[in-house]
């Protein structure tokens, strides 16, 4: 571990979650062993190499070695300190990465220049994959300029039209991540278009059920309430205007969206209109999966790695259940 950087612990919430601070301060006791799947372009290579320079990870670069080397040479990136694992193609690289996790040789996976479906297809295999008893889901940790707290959005990348049972795991995965990020009792807003239960809107029925399930201990570690519309989940003023009495309204740490489409649009709107960054990670598998987008800049890729480091660190300390988040 770099002597100039403290270990991955939970600093004050006033600034620790901002990406620059998160990246600079979150160095694990030993770099995470990360299987980087098919890093055959500049951006995916740069993210892994820069994370290694900051002592966050030791990357295993898995893919056609000739293509990886050509990409590195073209971008002027030195990959000589790292181990290359030859694979025939992207699918084969994903298979080898999962095998490394199962053999205890890697503590996380990182997506390179391949489609999400390829890496997730290997992860969710019933035989030889990385499934646990919990459903796999994706969480964005958003860094929004001039917004005073971290905001987690889920699920915007994996579960297309989640059922109530799947939403239970989506909530729990996000709560576990919040714990790993130093938020001990996160406030979870279950989003819909309205803040009242409407029998004709399934998202409001699911939200009401999830709220009651949290009260009965079927979802633990956070305060869950819904349905809430986006405005009254995020704004105290909007909540007061509509007369909503809730511990979550206006104070949400986690936004649980009705489906992938709404989550994807929400995250991208914040990215392009509010100039936010979204570090992405997949939870619920045996190890965290760093799921970056092709449009992510190096800073966002590094933040995604730092979030994964916090998850692994929290697991080792028993702050979240091993094998879940």
Report what the structure shows:
The protein is of the alpha/beta class and about 325 residues long. It has a domain at about 30-130: Rossmann fold (3-Layer(aba) Sandwich). The protein has 11 helices and 11 strands. The protein has helices at about 20-25, 40-55, 65-75, 90-100, 115-125, 165-180, 200-215, 230-235, 235-240, 260-275, 300-315, and strands spanning about 30-35, 55-65, 85, 110, 135-145, 150-155, 185-190, 225-230, 255, 275-285, 290. An 11-stranded mixed sheet has the order 3-2-1-4-11-10-5-6-9-7-8, sandwiched between helices. A hairpin with a 7-residue loop joins β5 (about 135-145) and β6. α2 crosses α11 (about 300-315). The longest helix has 19 residues, at about 300-315. It is globular, with a radius of gyration of 19 Å. The two termini are about 25 Å apart. About 50% of the residues are buried.
Which strand order do you get reading across the main beta sheet? 3-2-1-4-11-10-5-6-9-7-8
Please count the beta strands (DSSP E, at least 2 residues each): 11
Question: In terms of per-residue confidence, which ranges show pLDDT below 50 for 5 or more consecutive residues?
Answer: 1-17
> How much is the average pLDDT?
89
SSE order: HEHEHEHEHEEHEHEHHEHEEH
Instruction: Tell me the span between the first and last alpha carbons.
Output: 24 Å
CATH topology tier name of one domain: Rossmann fold
Number of helices, where a helix is a run of at least 4 consecutive DSSP H or I residues: 11
């Amino acid at each position: 571990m770099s002597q100039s950087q403290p270990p991955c612990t939970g600093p004050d919430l006033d600034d620790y979650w901002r990406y620059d601070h998160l990246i600079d301060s979150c160095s694990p006791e030993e770099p995470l062993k990360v299987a980087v799947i098919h890093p055959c372009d500049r951006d995916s290579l740069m993210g892994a190499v820069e994370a290694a320079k900051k002592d966050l990870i030791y990357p295993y670069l898995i893919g056609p070695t000739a293509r990886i080397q050509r990409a590195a040479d073209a971008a002027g990136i030195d990959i000589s300190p790292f181990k290359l694992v030859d694979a025939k193609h992207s699918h084969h690289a994903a298979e080898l990465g999962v095998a490394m996790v199962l053999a205890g040789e890697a503590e996380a996976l990182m997506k390179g220049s391949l489609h999400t479906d390829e890496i997730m297809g290997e992860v969710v295999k019933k035989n030889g994959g990385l499934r646990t008893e919990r459903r796999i889901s994706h969480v964005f940790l958003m860094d929004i300029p001039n917004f005073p707290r971290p905001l987690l959005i889920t699920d915007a990348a994996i579960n297309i039209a989640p059922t109530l049972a799947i939403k239970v795991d989506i909530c729990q995965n996000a709560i576990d991540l919040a714990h790993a990020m130093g938020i001990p009792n996160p406030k979870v807003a279950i989003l819909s278009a309205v803040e009242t239960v409407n029998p004709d809107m399934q998202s409001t029925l699911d939200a009401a059920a999830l709220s009651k399930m949290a009260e009965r201990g079927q979802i633990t570690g956070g305060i869950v309430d819904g349905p809430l519309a986006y405005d009254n989940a995020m704004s105290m003023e909007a909540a007061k205007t509509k007369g909503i009495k809730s511990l979550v309204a206006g104070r949400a740490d986690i936004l649980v969206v009705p489906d992938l489409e709404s989550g994807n649009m929400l995250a991208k709107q914040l990215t392009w209109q509010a100039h936010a960054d979204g570090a992405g990670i997949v939870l619920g598998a045996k190890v965290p999966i760093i799921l970056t987008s092709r449009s992510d800049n190096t800073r966002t890729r590094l933040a995604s790695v730092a979030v994964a480091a916090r998850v692994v660190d929290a697991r080792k300390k028993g702050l979240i259940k091993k094998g879940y988040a």
